[in-house]
Amino acid sequence: MGTTQLESVPEPKYWHLRTVLSEALDSEFSVGEVLPNERDLAARFGVARATLRQALEQLELEGRLQRRRGVGTTVAPPRVGVAVGTERHAWPGTADDAWEPADCVPAAPPAAVAEVLGTGRDEPVHIVRRSRVSHGQPVAAELLYVPPSSVPDLTAIDAPSGAARARVVLRELQRGELERRESAVELGSVGAEDAKELDRLPGAPVLVVTTRYLAEGRTAALSVATYRADTCRLTFGDFGDVEIHHGPETRAS
């Protein structure tokens, strides 16, 4: 490959480099291909490595690149469309729920979660961990916080720990009458625990969907779902629960 010098432009140099790199990804690289190392890329485009890293981070944020443990930076496949529906009367764990329960433990939630749930900061709640896999690839991880008051009959049930306990908590939660649910989406960075589950490096960009399930005028459960920003595109429709579609022709309206 020859050397491509960047012209002087009014926009930040890393942003112009991002555009040049994006064009190179389209014309010179295929999905899954490993990019040259930072030193070679910086030399090719005549920029400092700090500028190159900014451009690479931006392309990762946009889902064009992936950083993979033990592999390096690779060209990412097209994002899968994740339709976040607005159905107001569906508890988590219903028959068409795509999430797979993994574990359930009683523990005190983070202070911000306790405030939303209206529980004491040291009061334990049921913390259900769930995951989503699409085409063999992990795409999301979720923590569902359920206060004991939302599943009052659970103490009388001899449920084992782990995934079995999680399913029992979800089943008991569905006995209540859901009034509505409210969701919010924000950009974040993945922590160490979720990074391992999602096969990402700590600090990688993620989309965080927080959902409040309301019943009897209070928050009956709170979901914090972390989606891989490099593989997922969130869309909102008028019906249906969270559903993953594959291919650009199946984008939700």
From TrEMBL:
Gene3D superfamilies: Chorismate lyase-like, Winged helix-like DNA-binding domain superfamily/Winged helix DNA-binding domain. The keyword Ubl conjugation does not apply. InterPro entries: Bact_HTH_transcr_reg, Chorismate_lyase_/UTRA_dom_sf, Tscrpt_reg_HTH_GntR, UTRA, WH-like_DNA-bd_sf, WH_DNA-bd_sf. Keywords: DNA-binding, Transcription, Transcription regulation. Residues 11-78 form the HTH gntR-type domain. PANTHER family: GNTR-FAMILY TRANSCRIPTIONAL REGULATOR, MANNOSYL-D-GLYCERATE TRANSPORT/METABOLISM SYSTEM REPRESSOR MNGR-RELATED. This is GntR family transcriptional regulator. It comes from Streptomyces thinghirensis.
